[in-house]
Design goal:
The chain is built from 16 helices and 19 strands. With 435 residues, it is an alpha/beta fold. Helix 6 (178-186) runs parallel beside helix 7.
């Protein structure tokens, strides 16, 4: 069934299709792979013209035309990296940021477990240095600092860096690259551990970023990187993880080739369930010796499922379109039967889903989010108001669309009272279903 066979009133998200750009040279379209420089980029999926996913609106911005930009996913046949064709200027995306990691209990517990593991396995103490790239509000580095391990956070978002500093986490409000790494090394800052949680996919200058890590890491230091796993994104149809900030979607194969090009070696890899499927890789200088059985095993698995075969990625767009139609049909049926529907999670993935599916005020009454930095603002595109989660019990909409499905267990537990009173959640991925 196509859109013409499913009549519905267009949402504001669909009506507001301006492509007006922000001031300056905001968007560039890449013709070559950001990792290997290859020119064999094959488009996989177009999500159309979408707003910047984390550009939440204030009340006085509601009368302004919201800029929208193309969002196109592509595959590099030379190094297997999946990536966006469009690059929005990092200064536009990251200087002022609305995502604060500490508002997620799941992320804080995840960070604490990683810190404890590294403190023990690397024998970190007061003579060590842990550097986190994209350190956000200090949610991770606080656990090292509490254990007496010196830390340094680096994050370009000035508002977020201020919060980290207020918590006692030394933070540089800068973009990390080769030049900054050289400056730090010249000042005597050599890292025993470098950590990057969900940052590598956001970096436009991918090679400069990785080269910087190679410079900053001590001779026997270790680099720990977490990225969403492209295989899980494909298998679970997690298209809403695609947005302008998230430029790259990694496999073990693409990571192994990227790090090798900069004198680094992936020594170990773990598959994690967080964020719908994540890779955690442990990287050392290329001179490191020893077997790496988990890396080799996953490289072989990826070879079998066709990590380098463009045809494997070609079916993704069709499955995404089917999911969109299924979700819209479900919501239209529920709304047509007189139900009220809200949404949980003013996250980037939520912006992508609402924009691509054309879901707005004609279907949803409001959005709730735990972050006090997001409450009182409005979603980009749909311009739905964002309230505290308590609003769900106060108004008791019959259904809530769970935009932050990657934290489903945490959110469903927090909303036990809403569910006890009869409220239900709609989980959109990997296929729309009600819980």
């Amino acid at each position: 069934m196509d859109d013409t066979e499913h009549p519905r009133r267009k949402s504001r998200a669909e009506r507001d299709v301006s492509t007006g750009a922000l001031p300056g040279d905001t968007v560039a379209v890449t013709r070559t792979c950001r990792a290997c420089g290859g020119s064999r980029l094959s488009p996989i999926l177009s999500l159309g013209q979408t707003p910047l996913a984390n550009r939440l609106l204030s009340a006085d911005q509601l009368g302004q035309v919201a800029p929208r930009y193309p969002l196109t996913l592509a595959f590099c046949s030379d190094c297997t990296l999946v990536q966006l064709l469009e690059t929005v200027a990092p200064e536009v995306l990251f200087r002022e940021y609305v995502y604060f990691s500490s508002f997620s209990d799941t992320m804080v517990r995840h960070a604490e477990a990683l810190a404890k593991e590294l403190i023990q396995s690397r024998a970190l103490d007061s003579r060590s240095l842990v550097v986190e790239l994209a350190s956000n509000d200090g949610y991770l580095l606080q656990f090292f600092a509490c254990a007496g391990v010196p830390v340094l956070g680096i994050d370009p978002a000035e508002n977020v860096a201020r919060v980290a500093e207020q918590r006692g986490i030394r933070t540089l409000a800068k973009f990390f690259d080769r030049g900054l790494a050289q400056s730090l090394c010249s000042a005597g800052a050599v890292a025993d551990v470098i950590i990057g949680i969900n940052v590598l996919g956001h970096v436009a200058d991918l090679n400069g970023f990785v080269a910087g890590m190679e410079i900053l890491a001590a001779e026997h230091g270790i680099i720990v990187i977490e990225v969403p796993y492209v295989k899980d994104m494909l298998d679970r149809c997690e298209f809403d993880t695609i947005y302008h900030e998230h430029l790259h979607y990694f496999s073990v194969t693409s990571l192994d080739r990227l790090f090798a090009a900069h004198g680094l070696r992936v020594m170990d890899v773990q598959r994690l369930t967080i964020h719908g499927g994540t890779l955690r890789v442990f990287v050392s200088h290329a001179g490191s010796t020893g077997d790496r059985p988990q890396v080799d095993r996953l490289l072989q698995e990826e070879g079998r499922w066709g990590v380098g075969d463009a045809d494997v990625y070609g079916t993704f767009a069709g499955r995404v379109a089917e999911l969109r139609q299924a979700l819209r049909s479900l919501l239209d049926d529920l709304k047509g039967n007189g139900n009220r529907i809200a949404a949980y999670g003013a996250a980037a993935k939520g912006s992508t889903l609402l924009s691509y599916a054309g879901i707005g005020e004609e279907c949803l009454d409001f959005v709730v989010d735990r972050s006090t930095y997001k409450q009182g603002r409005f979603m980009p595109g749909s311009r739905l108001p964002i309230y505290p989660p308590e609003r769900l019990v106060e108004e008791m909409p019959e259904y809530v669309l769970l935009l932050t499905w990657n934290f489903a267990d945490e959110i469903l537990a927090q909303q036990a009272e809403y569910r006890r009173r009869g409220g239900k959640f709609i989980v959109p991925v990997p296929e729309p279903h009600i819980v």
